[in-house]
Amino acid sequence: MRRVLEGARGAVAFMTLIPLGGTLNAVSLVVIPLTGLIVGGASLVGFWIGDRSGSTLVGAVVALIVDAAMTRGLHYDAVADTADGLAGFVERERRLAIMDEPTVGAFAVLALIVVVLVRISAWSTIGFPAFLIGIFVLSRCMMALSMMWFPLAKESSLARVFASQRRHWIVWFLLLEGLLAVGAMIVLGTPMMLLALVFGALCGLGVLAFAIHHLRGITGDVVGAVGLVAETGMLLAVAVMRIHG
């Protein structure tokens, strides 16, 4: 039981700004998707507070700020680093070096602008119905499964902490959590929601495939980018579906 609690606390502390301490272990991988409930719930509250101003745009901006704050900006930073590393025509070693540099380039800025604009536009269009929290859970299932299934591009990657905990039972737990999130969103939203989830998942998988092709593996930045891009793609698809009825 102590190991379970330590792993759960470690996952929450790692994936959010809540300082619970703990240590990262196999249990942490199972808990990672559940941290989406925390981040998504906090973002929902942020949207509700901003929306009280009478503007869904303000609500969307506040939701974005809360989302970035709750994750300490890690996933947005991951998108920036991944965009800089995967863009351009350079060798694999140079790509990995670029992703480790503290500076940001033009591709990083462009990627962040696109992600931010899409998320704000989507929330401005659809609001923040409670079932959208499932997107935060599903994206983190993808992140955890990525660390379970794919090789690492470098030994020093932060993802190695989780990759070393690969167990078959963890995969089944993550798949179950993902299915429950999808089911809840379909029940609380609409069956057509499945199309939005598939589109977003394909966006995240596209980033993953591109990274594996160029880096011959994944890094912590790639994992974070996969999650945030998948989330953003799902939000965009939901907004388009809402506009076209």
TrEMBL record:
Enzyme Commission numbers on file:
2.7.8.26
Q: In which pathway does it act?
A: Cofactor biosynthesis; adenosylcobalamin biosynthesis; adenosylcobalamin from cob(II)yrinate a,c-diamide: step 7/7
**Where are the bilayer-spanning segments?**
12-39, 45-66, 104-122, 128-150, 170-188, 194-215, 222-243
**One record GO biological process:** cobalamin biosynthetic process
* A Gene Ontology cellular-component term: plasma membrane
* KW Heme (keyword) present: no
One MF term in the entry's GO annotations: adenosylcobinamide-GDP ribazoletransferase activity
Catalyzed reaction equations: alpha-ribazole 5'-phosphate + adenosylcob(III)inamide-GDP = adenosylcob(III)alamin 5'-phosphate + GMP + H(+); alpha-ribazole + adenosylcob(III)inamide-GDP = adenosylcob(III)alamin + GMP + H(+)
Q: Matching InterPro entries, A to Z? A: CobS
Its localization reads: Cell membrane
Keyword match Repeat: no
Q: Which Pfam families match?
A: CobS
Tell me the keywords, alphabetical order: Cell membrane, Cobalamin biosynthesis, Magnesium, Membrane, Transferase, Transmembrane, Transmembrane helix
Organism's domain of life? Bacteria
Note the topology in the membrane.
Multi-pass membrane protein
- What is the enzyme's class at the highest EC level? transferase
Name what cofactor the protein needs.
Answer: Mg(2+)
Family according to the record: Belongs to the CobS family.
What role does it play? Joins adenosylcobinamide-GDP and alpha-ribazole to generate adenosylcobalamin (Ado-cobalamin). Also synthesizes adenosylcobalamin 5'-phosphate from adenosylcobinamide-GDP and alpha-ribazole 5'-phosphate.
Q: What is this protein called?
A: Adenosylcobinamide-GDP ribazoletransferase
**In which organism is this protein found?**
Ferrimicrobium acidiphilum DSM 19497
Give the encoding gene's name. Answer: cobS
